[in-house]
Write a structure and sequence with these properties.
Length: 78
C-alpha cells in the first residue's frame, strides 16, 4: 500500500454516523475515538491501494486513521 502527503485537500469532513478513528489502516486495529458526523479533520496522509484511508488530526489534537468512505473532501480553492 502506498501513501502520499495530502496537499490539495484543505479538510475532510466526517460524512457518516459513528465513524471511527483507528490506530492503523486496518478495520481490526484499535478504535481510538468515535467521530461525530460533520466533524472537520485535518488530513495529513492519504493511503492508496486496496482500500483508501486518511491519516488525520482532530481539533482536539488526536491523530489516527479514518476510512475514506467515511469522509468527504474539502478541496483547496485556487
Amino acid at each position: 500500500m502506498s501513501e502520499y502527503l495530502v496537499d490539495k485537500i484543505r479538510a475532510v469532513l466526517v460524512a457518516t454516523k459513528d465513524a471511527g478513528l483507528y490506530s492503523r489502516q486496518d478495520d481490526e486495529s484499535e478504535k481510538l475515538f468515535l467521530l461525530a458526523q460533520g466533524e472537520t479533520l485535518t488530513p495529513m496522509i492519504q493511503s492508496a491501494g486496496g482500500s483508501e484511508w486518511y491519516m488525520v488530526k482532530t481539533k482536539k489534537g488526536l491523530v489516527g486513521w479514518i476510512k475514506s468512505k467515511d469522509v468527504r473532501e474539502e478541496k483547496v480553492k485556487k
